[in-house]
Amino acid sequence: MVSTKDIDSLHKQEESAFDLSAYLAEKQAQVEAALERAIPVTYPEKIYDAMRYSLLAGGKRLRPILCLASCELAGGTPEMAMPTACALEMVHTMSLIHDDLPAMDNDDYRRGKLTNHKVYGEDIAILAGDGLLTYAFEFIAANTKNVPAERVVRAIAQLARAFGPAGVVGGQVVDLEWEGKPDVPVETLNFIHTHKTGALLEACVVCGALLAGAPALDLQRLSSYAKKIGLAFQIVDDILDITATTEKLGKTAGKDLQAQKATYPSLWGLEESRRQASLLIDAAKAELDPFGQKAQPLRSLADFITNRSH
Ligand code: GRG
User: Fold this and answer.
1) In the prediction, which pLDDT does 134 show?
2) Distance in angstroms (rounded) separating the CA atoms of residues 171 and 163
3) Which residue from 290, 289, 284 is spatially nearest to 303, judged by alpha carbons?
4) Is the CB of 62 inside a 6 Å radius of any atom of ligand 1?
5) Above 90 in pLDDT, residue 133?
6) N or C: which end of the chain has fewer CB within 10 A?
7) Radius of gyration of the chain measured on its C-alpha atoms
8) Residues 158, 102: Cα–Cα separation, whole Å
9) Distance 235 CA to ligand 1 centre (A)
10) 58 CA from centroid of ligand 1 (Å)
């Protein structure tokens, strides 16, 4: 009989054999090329330029890569998921543009460059966000090939729900409500981040598997994996806001403290926050056990979330 210890040691061997840097470099290059092609510039050029400015400004491309990895895990091809992967990056970029606006977080730098409104003005930045948001859904519907229409509709619905009032928008509203009040209860902080950050990461993983035709039980396991990495991602984000430099982050460091924002380190301290993130990553990876070796990219991506420097 195979024991849990045997499985753990097998996973350790698989993890050390998997080259995450090479995997990330390959997927990032594929995503960059697809994004570059996704939005051609036409009249009125100003809006397409503004959309492309933020979309092509770099970034880790974690969301599209999670979508591609999950599709592959479920037996799909990169082509089946690439339009959705690009759309996920478009809506993520949209949320960054709007988050940086003076009415929200009011930031001057993002991805190491001036924020969209600093370059194009607030009016165009709002419209560039709106353009990316709507174009993302058009892009999935018009470009997804060799996937049954019913799966495409389910992926679109999943993404729309994750990004709307039941997800990212809802999380952002509660975040704004608690601005300047550092005594946020941990339940509220969890609500904010499972919605504002976690919901989109969950949609990435679920949409990828959905497009490949994964059965309901696999979708449930992947959703549970994604919820855990989503929260860990935010805890690490809060830690980096304190420990990393503006240059490394590509956005203004120390903003949470400056805005008197409640964060996981402000509630638990840095060490306990690191421990909680690591526990969540272990629990996320445990959800992948039934998938065996083919889940290695998702396992390594979970580790990447805690080990990242920006
Ligand atoms: C959703 C319709 C709609 C509007 C937007 C502004 C807003 C409402 C929501 C804010 C969402 C937000 C910015 C959440 C923070 C998520 C987060 C931690 C982003 C940083 O992600 P990284 O580190 O960034 O993956 P890169 O640049 O690498 O992609």
Assistant:
1) 98
2) 10
3) 284
4) yes
5) yes
6) N
7) 19
8) 30
9) 14
10) 14
